[in-house]
């Protein structure tokens, strides 16, 4: 009996060889792309920068609308994408949601892609 | 005569105050978002990682197709987006295009957004 061994892995990347050796695994590449995709929008770049640069490291949704000049539902939608990408955390306190930057999430994605 | 002073700058960000102090300028946010948008795709994440991790720091388009399992025109299209975002450079040598990672481009974008 002969068994056909696949030369390609299920995700379509080559199974081995020097050229493929430097490539990220597909799952890892998808995870990293999700992080960067969330930051592929100038409003979300501004929002994350605002929160990261705030004195307490935390910002209320109520203080994020004015600096980006957008209504709260729109800002909430943008913040949801940043939270889902693992770049920010959300905590509901009474009426308002508060957001923090996840330490190292962006830098880790950048370093996994291109180690310094 | 009274003059109405705008409380908002033309790009919609607040002109001043502690909350707005941490925000990036719109132009800067757009530049950063362009860099990250180019990496919001797992194939482009893989391509940049492959080039950055190669022994010579340079890769021929002819060696990039197999590892990502895509045809050359598709890979060329992805590489064009990485070049336009300032993440890679392209050099034509005879028949083939060769690509290099632009040192520090990704890390600079990440650090401008969130200084470490």
UniProtKB/TrEMBL annotation, chains A, B:
Known Pfam families for this protein?
A: HTH_5 (PF01022)
All residue ranges annotated as the HTH arsR-type domain in the record: 24-116
Keywords recorded for this protein, A-Z = DNA-binding, Transcription, Transcription regulation
Please provide, alphabetically and separated by semicolons, the GO molecular function terms listed in this UniProt record. DNA binding; DNA-binding transcription factor activity
Q: Which InterPro entries match?
A: ArsR-like_HTH, HTH_ArsR_DNA-bd_dom, HTH_MetalResp_TranReg, WH-like_DNA-bd_sf, WH_DNA-bd_sf
Q: Which CDD domains match?
A: HTH_ARSR
Protein name (database record): ArsR family transcriptional regulator
Originating species: Compostimonas suwonensis
């Amino acid at each position: 009996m002969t068994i056909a061994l696949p030369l390609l892995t299920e995700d379509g990347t080559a199974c081995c060889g020097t050229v493929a050796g430097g490539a990220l695994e597909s799952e890892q590449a998808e995870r990293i792309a999700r992080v960067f995709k969330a930051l592929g929008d100038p409003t979300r770049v501004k929002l994350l920068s605002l929160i990261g640069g705030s004195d307490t490291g935390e910002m209320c949704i109520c203080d994020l609308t004015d600096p980006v000049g957008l209504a709260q539902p729109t800002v909430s939608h943008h913040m949801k994408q940043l939270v889902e990408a693992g770049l920010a955390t959300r905590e509901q306190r009474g009426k308002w949601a508060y957001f923090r930057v996840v330490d190292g999430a962006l830098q880790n994605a950048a370093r996994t892609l291109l180690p310094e």
